[in-house]
Amino acid sequence: TIPLESRQIWKKFSLGEFGDKQEFQQEFVRHVETSLARSLYNCDDLAAYQAASQAVRDRLVVAWNRTQQKHTLTDTKRVYYLSLEFLMGRALDNAMLNTRTKQYAREGVKDFGFRLEDLIEQEPDAALGNGGLGRLAACFVDSLASENYPGWGYGLRYEYGIFKQKIIDGYQVEQPDYWLTYGSSWEIPRNEISVDIMFYGYVRHYTDDEGVHRRCWEGGDVVRAVASDFPVPGYGTANVNNLRLWSSKPAQEFDFAKFNAGDYINSVSEQQRAETISAVLYPNDNFDSGKELRLKQQYLWVAASLNDIVRRFKKSKRPWREFPEQIAIQLNDTHPTLAIVELQRIFVDLEQLPWKEAWDLVVETFGYTNHTVLPEALEKWPVPMLENLLPRHLEIIYDINLYFLQEVEAKFPNDRELLSRVSIIEESQPQQARMAYLAIIGSHKVNGVAELHSDLIKKTIFKDFVAVYGGDKFINVTNGITPRRWLHQANPELSDLIASKIGSGFVKDLSELRHLEKFADDEDFQRQWMLVKHKRKEKLAALVKSQSGVVLNPDHLFDIQVKRIHEYKRQQLNILGVIHRYVELKQMSPEERRKMTPRVSLFGGKSAPGYYMAKTIIKLINDVGKVVNNDPDMFDSLKVVFVEDYNVSKAEIIIPASDISEHISTAGTEASGTSNMKFVLNGGLIIGTVDGANVEITREIGEDNIYLFGHLADEVEDIRHKHKYGGVQVGKKLQQVFDFIQSGALGDPEIYTSLLHSIKYGGDYYLVSDDFDAYLEAQHTINHDFKDTKEWARKSIVSVSRMGFFSSDRAIRDYAEGIWNVEPSPVEE
Ligand code: Z16
Span 432-453, mean pLDDT? Predict the structure, then answer.
């Protein structure tokens, strides 16, 4: 530390916030000339982006340090959000807006001939996630910081994020996303913070000095986890939190034994294998692949994070019993469930706490969030794989299971069936460890992510656990989205218009949007509102034009479905509906056709690389687009577009441009959905099923402002049963569509056989046939309603004004009060 008498000098040079444009420019030029070693003669957009980022980053780092210092000094309870995915998107715009320095930067770079918007575009997305779950984690760290909670994210620093999607001949082709080509301006390498992580090896038994029998994990491969920190600025606060991501590195430079034996090449290349652990994000959304490399990723990340957390706790010199008073750890899905086992191992094996004492602390520390009921998404690890990779952890899992089953037996004596149903170990060939069960047993609270979903898990997949623990352990925390990125940043036009009426307080407290409702009938305001929407449709049209050459008319109804491609999300229902409309329009006279509401159907989203059916759906959408967009009869009536490589920064352009967006999952399958919230917050209406957060959106905005259709969650099981034993009834309209496809009008119909068969002869698991007519009916109502612009605008304004509940700030406060028991701890400016 710096001696007391010198601290005044230090403070004189310590960086504060930018006070004006000149201060920004000074830093900008310094970074171009020194950090980037360039000059005014070769400063292109990329260099200018990097210099601007580093100027902003520097300020964040100072505030970041102050924040961490303050939390350490005051020894406040911290929250750790463990997530294998953080779908952050770009950082620069967000950092400038949150620190309120965007104006200085804009004017500052303008003097040098740059447009700030062009610089922002230079940044590659940090796409370290698949979809909803990863983006939720990104919204949550934004809200933790903005609400002044001492909250850290812990994750993996993948070198390759979610693949880039190319569409070639209508098919998805995956390309690697190496996002670190120019390094990342936002990353603070922490090479000095590293943890050696063990794999494989064996369990040694021994008797300690007091004669107690103990076990210890020994031997095996060692891989080093090295930390990188990414500052997370809160909005309008000096609080800057931390996102710590781990990379895997070789534990030592060389295997000296081999090196000396002359096998230099092999000793180096074997070490390189360590780096593959954090190399690439698994590209599955809502699907468990069960691969050993994935298990290694999970353990490396969890073990490094817990080592870090425990080390920090030990510095406070508090007794172990205060661990849960100081630390809350949230498990984002079951991916980090090994953390429960690892903490118990640290307590019992390394710190020698008695089992029961340790276990009570563990349970009090953890909370588990469930994000899905889909059986194919629930993680199970083969016991032989665990035994090989993590032998001591498997023993601890067995012990946790044993004590748990004894508890169950005491409560429900002689119920063998129940014991086998709730056992962590599934008696399959091979045996499998059910990670969701372990997560429930090792946590004090379990939450679902929307009301319907939280009710559903209690009635279905976790029913037995409700019987064992009682209902209080299972709670709901409805998801939310950050209004900073998803309104203020993505849609400055709308944000400004709203602020002109009610001030800009809604960016921090979204419930203030309620004051907007009194302007819903104001015709002048309605016109301005629709003008913003029109502008944003133009912006999307420009993107589509530049990427695919297809010209869209911003006066037409924009109907958008962007999300991961998955059978349960039912993009097939949408595209089959589009085909139906096309066939109908073709049968009309030009006069009749002119009376119809002209539409643009826009799709976007990635399929998991190995998901054949999802890839077939992408192909179908693209083939429909090719036929429709080249049919002169359709020029003023219908366009069908697939936007390549949907990601966070494209979402920021697409979402503000919808008139209608589609959230049409089979009832009971979409846990929450979060883009539904983003679309409504941006003034789009939605067509949806009674599923996930659609239910609560409807309750908040009113059922007149949403187009709901389809069977309900509690009917689905019966319908599937009927399909199975009585066959699937494909109605007249859907059959017409099948006939059209099979006629070869879209090209080789063979390509779609499996898709159509999965509906007609394969049991139609996702109820496409059952919901098809109701879906068309709802779309028909939309066509009608869209013609009344004033009424449409009114619905849109009313909806936005009632969206306050869906802020992730509210969600984070729910977690803080209901699960973590932590309080905000603001840092002085
Ligand atoms: C995911 O994105 C979600 C669930 C899951 O088990 C795995 C992944 Cl990668 C999604 C849900 O499908 C979605 O409904 C929800 O809104 C989102 O998680 C955030 O909770």
Answer: 99
How many degrees, rounded to 5, is the angle at CA 306 between CA 302 and CA 307?
A: 115
Enter the tokens of residue 807: 């802020």
* Section 179-183 average pLDDT: 95
3-state secondary structure of 3: coil
Q: How far is the CA of 671 from the centre of ligand 1 (A)?
A: 7
Residue 356 confidence (pLDDT)? 98
DSSP 420-482: HHH-SEE-SSS-EEEHHHHHHHT-SEEEESSHHHHHHHHHTTTHHHHHHH-GGGEEE----B-
Which is the closest atom of ligand 1 to the Cα of 693?
16
Helix (H, G, I), strand (E, B) or coil at 562: strand
Share of the chain above pLDDT 70, in %: 99
| CB-ligand 1 contact for 286 (6 Å cutoff) | yes
Q: What is the pLDDT of residue 828?
A: 81
For position 267, what pLDDT does the model report?
Answer: 75
Q: Is 670 in the pocket of ligand 1 (CB under 6 A)?
A: yes
Count CA atoms closer than 13 A to 540's CA, side-chain side: 36
Q: Is 334 in the pocket of ligand 1 (CB under 6 A)?
A: no
Q: Give distance in angstroms: CA of 367 to centre of ligand 1.
A: 17
Instruction: Give the structural domain span for 608.
Output: 483-713+773-806
pLDDT tens column, 506-543: 999 999 999 999 999 999 999 999 999 999 999 999 99
653 and 783 inside one domain = yes
**Separation of alpha carbons 448 and 704, rounded Å:** 27
Confidence of residue 272 (pLDDT cuts 50, 70, 90): confident
Q: Is 733 part of any domain?
A: no
pLDDT at 268: 78
Which run of H or of E encompasses 574?
A: helix 571-586
Instruction: From 501, 495, 540, 506, select the one nearest 522 (Cα to Cα).
Output: 501
Q: Is the CB of 682 under 6 A from ligand 1?
A: no
Q: 130: Cβ below 6 Å to ligand 1?
A: yes
Are 399 and 462 members of one domain? yes
pLDDT of 714 > 70? The answer is: yes
Closest Cα to atom 13 of ligand 1? 673
SS3 for 123-160 is CCCEEECCCHHHHHHHHHHHHHHHCCCCEEEEEECCCE
For residue 225, give the nearest of 251, 199, 201, 243 by alpha carbon: 251
Question: What Å distances lie between residue 25 and 97, 109, 110, 146, 233, CA to CA?
Answer: 17, 7, 10, 27, 21
- Judge whether 23 lies within some domain: no
Least confident of 486-500, 563-577, 815-829: 815-829
Tally of domains in the chain: 2
Closest CA to 809 of 11, 146, 15, 171: 146
Alpha carbon of 160 to ligand 1 centroid (Å): 21
Q: Which atom of ligand 1 is nearest to the CA of 286?
A: 7
- Residue 363, domain member (yes or no): yes
- Residue 674 Cβ contacting ligand 1 at under 6 Å: yes
Quick one: pLDDT band at residue 262, thresholds 50, 70, 90? confident
Please give the mean pLDDT across all residues of the chain.
97
Q: Are residues 405 and 519 in the same domain?
A: no
Please give the positions annotated as active site: 371, 563-564, 569, 674, 678
Query: pLDDT class for 750, splitting at 50, 70, 90?
Result: very high
Mutating to test ligand 1, I would choose from 372, 694, 814 the residue with most ligand atoms within 8 A of its C-beta, which is 372
Same domain, 369 and 248: yes
Q: What is the CATH number of the domain that holds 397?
A: 3.40.50.2000
Residue 675 tokens, joined: 């883009």
Average pLDDT over residues 704-723: 98
Per the CB < 8 A criterion, the answer to whether 706 and 661 are in contact is no
Number of residues that make up the chain: 829
**Residue 315 alpha carbon to ligand 1 centre in Å:** 36
**Do 342 and 451 sit in the same domain of this protein?**
yes
Report pLDDT for 254.
Answer: 56
